[in-house]
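DM from R.C. (forwarded with permission)

"hey, sorry to bug you on a friday — could you get me a structure for this? deadline for the figure draft is monday and I only need the backbone to look sensible"
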Amino acid sequence: MRVPPRSHVARRAAACTALLPAMLALVVVSGGTLAAAQAPAAAAPDAASPAKAAAPEPAAPEPAAAVPKPSAAEEKPADDAAAKPPLPDKPRILPPFRQLPVVTEEQEKAFRAQRSNIQRSLRNGTIPPDQEQAFRQYYYGYALARWTYVDRQHEVAGYRRELRNELSMSYKAGRANQAHDHLAMLVLNFMKNVVRMDLNFSPAARSNAILMIGDLNQEEAGTGAQAPLPLAEAMPFLVSVFQDPAQTDEVKIGALNGICRHVVALKSRNNLQAISLEAISTLVALAKMRDPERVRSDEGHAWMRTLAVEALAEWGGASNPAALADVFRNIVAETESPLFLRYAAAEALGKVAYQGNVSLDMNAYLHTLGMLAVSVCDIERERLHDEQLSASQSGAPGGMGYGAGMPPGAEGGMASSAYGMDAEFGMGMGYGMAAPASTEETRRIDRLRRRFKEGLSAVLIGLGKKSKTPSRNEAPYGLEAIAGQQAQKDLIARLSTPIHDCFAVIDEKKDNRPISTIDLAKAIEEAREKLATAVASVGPAPPPAVEYEIIPRGPAMMGAGGMPGGMPGGMP
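My reply, with the result:
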């Protein structure tokens, strides 16, 4: 009798059975590691003292004494079958995150019952002497300690909002704010320990802690437009955290946000002299850093540089505006950097405090901004072409592209159509025609238009020509503020006028419809040609524009009988 072959299921079951002893052995070997992973964390710091220094790591083991090398006969086992396979490497288990002592349910109820007394002290602005100990115990033992609880990390952002509201509530202008000041310093000292790398608190706790430090104020925002006055004691710590090479990026970004907030708030308070030189040096070093000091995405690093550029623009370079302007110009010239970073640097050139006898190589600055304007035209024109090509190939509405098979520059509209039909019948297919565009098409054109304006508006701000007709009371700014020679003023006008004219064209609406794609492409090409001519007059000319072929009509735009627009075949 012939025995049928075993199925693949039976073979797999037999293989698993053969591997069972090895799997059991692996469990036994890794049991110690698993037990270590499930073991509780090391003793947390005392509640009254939220964080203590971590225990020193054990010293490196002493090197073993030299052992004579065995002979070849000794190295080779007597029986190869009896040789045991090497044990697998133990998995690397990260130590569990530290947390402060977790309060019991009864203790939490007692702390919550104290909150009304705590808030009463905050609203009154003073803490009675007999309640100071209870005040500190409430925050150190519960309100702030819970930020570190590993099972509550999803609630830490809410704790931060709650704390900010309490700080804001405890401050009133024109009175002694002893409770506010006491709480602000208590939070600062507590959060400094949470941020520390060696204490190994969770990333959520550490990130929210550094953000809270950056949000601390000496004076809260007033009822009017009065900006808050940041807590001066927080700035040195924010700078040290950002400069710490061992810190993680999420904490570094939180420190950077705090530094930038200090600069912006102090600028609003007309208190630029309070900005530390170390903070400015840190921002300048980051803005100039093309390559990150660690593994980080290019876009993420460029975003961090953008934050530094925007903060430095608020500072304005009061002590050395020429050096700051040179930093911004070099960033604008970085053709390999993302556009949003270059746009921020171009706008920053319009915010530099050009006062006194500032000496700049004006032609170099104007050439750099002009090259950015030309690049914006090239990039957006290419995007316009690519989106048109994609729409044509997919058969989406409006896939007729640059004139729907008409020669470049030909005007759209039913008057140029072979059918001579009025636009109200909806037969127009090209973007130059009068047929109403679809909702998606209108949104797409609007996105293209706004993106194009964003880049050129940054150039205008750098030039000092954001307003085409500035009011008489408007002080000159940007490069126009220091353009002394008439030739420089004329060049600024030659760069800004094509941009203003282009904006007027692409913002105009006819019959409540946005600009057509063919008109948008034509406006970009005309602006590009004029800008390139102006740039070439002061430096190397930009490369010639790319000539795009006419986009063919999409297959979905052909109706029965090969008639465009879905018209029935055989129609005259």
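R.C.: lifesaver. The two ends are 83 Å apart (CA to CA).
me: no worries. Strands lie at 217-219, 229-230.
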